[in-house]
Amino acid sequence: MTKRGSTDLLAFLVCLSLLLGGAVGFRSAVGALKIYLRKLPIESDLRLQSLPHRTDSWVRLMDKVEKAEMIEELGTQNYLTRFWVRERDQGTQGTPVLEMHAAYYTGMIDTVPHVPERCLVGGGFTIATGTRTLPLRIDLSGWTLEPGEDGVYSRPSYATRDAVQPDGTVRKVGVRSRVRLPRGIEDLALRTTQFIEPQTGRSMWAGYFFIANGGVARSAEDVRRLAFDLRADYAYYMKVQFSGRYETAEALASDAESLLNELLPDLLLCVPDWVEVERGEYPPENPRRRGESANLRG
Questions:
Q1: For residue 50, which of 266, 213, 218 has the smallest C-alpha distance?
Q2: Strand, helix or coil for residue 259
Q3: Which listed residue, 151, 200, 224, 285, has the most CB atoms within 10 A of its CB?
Q4: pLDDT at 20 over 50
Q5: Other CB atoms within 10 A of residue 27 CB
Q6: DSSP state, 53?
Q7: 3-state class (DSSP) for residue 216
Q8: Residue 200: burial class (beta carbons within 10 Å; 0-12, 13-18, 19+)
């Protein structure tokens, strides 16, 4: 071997050694800092289709079953599109109907599709006004602030509830004894936009928020920030969207706030309890239970 060849081989071996050493060091640092680079999927025992048909003051009118191609575009089978009306106004002409759409996603989260600004515009609507973010005030009087948990409220839950299984059947399942609100619930807000239907000139308002990895988010960017928390092994988010032919964004937000205050405990049973996830108590295969991270295996 020539001198030049020996020099090139030596340089290659040095570089390889540095790369291998860096990889080992990186994995060690990741483990020491409890940084989890891969995100595992996580589900709750209850699916969104199991939400009750009635609350204290709202009643379900109907559910919309999406076509197969729309479900494929939506990217999840765990969704619910339901139309609600205040019970006192049921059967009254001209009463606003509140459409609620919720969809659950889990695993590696790179983009957050299917927000109204994309979907409604893709369906032919035009945007009439700029985005406005309005607060959704959750009544915390029936909730207890948990000691030792930063800003987490909880309350007793049911013993059992109907749950829709993947094959469409319904069975009674036991649910967790307490339901917890996501952190930051005091900052919950509805991101609203007005849309115009060109064919009729009629307008509608739509607004949404997200619950992701035990916190609340107002935008897709916030979802990615929560879901890609480097300390978390799992990632999920749920989009909750309200829409209807309301006169103002405030009118939509007012009805959304009313329904949400009554439905939120049930809605949160359809997402994992993030406190239990962080403690390693859920799901059963949670790596934290064994004191390891899925990102450092294999």
A1: 266
A2: helix
A3: 224
A4: no
A5: 13
A6: S
A7: strand
A8: exposed
Task: Give CA–CA dist 281/156, Å, rounded.
Answer: 18
What pLDDT is recorded for position 15? Answer: 43
The number of beta carbons lying within 10 Å of the beta carbon of residue 109 is 19
| Residues 207, 133 contacting (CB under 8 angstroms) | no
| 152 token code pair | 């987490």
**pLDDT of 120:** 67
Length of the chain: 298
Q: Which pTM was predicted?
A: 0.81
In the block, tokens 């609100």 appear at 181
* pLDDT at position 267: 96
- Rounded to whole angstroms, the Cα distance separating 75 from 80 reads 13
Joined together, the tokens standing for residue 125 give 């609507």
3-state SS class at 263: helix
Q: 79-86 and 153-156 as β-strands: parallel, antiparallel, unpaired?
A: unpaired
Between β-strands 236-244 and 189-196, what pairing exists: parallel, antiparallel or unpaired? unpaired
Amino acid occupying residue 283: P
* Of 230, 213, 215, the residue nearest 293 (C-alpha): 230
| Rounded percentage of the chain residues whose pLDDT exceeds 90 | 50
Contact assessment for residue 264 and residue 204, using Cβ atoms and an 8 Å cutoff:
no
Q: What are phi and psi of 281, to 5 degrees?
A: -85, -20
17: helix, strand or coil:
helix
| Residue 72 contacts residue 93 (beta carbons within 8 Å) | no
Give the β-pairing of 98-106 and 236-244: antiparallel
Spatial CB neighbours of 234, under 8 Å, sequence gap ≥ 6: 39, 40, 41, 42, 106, 213, 272, 277
Does residue 50 contact residue 263 with C-beta atoms inside 8 Å? no
Name the amino acid, one letter, at 105: Y
DSSP 50: G
Q: By mean pLDDT, which of 70-74, 117-121, 236-240, 241-245 is the weakest?
A: 117-121
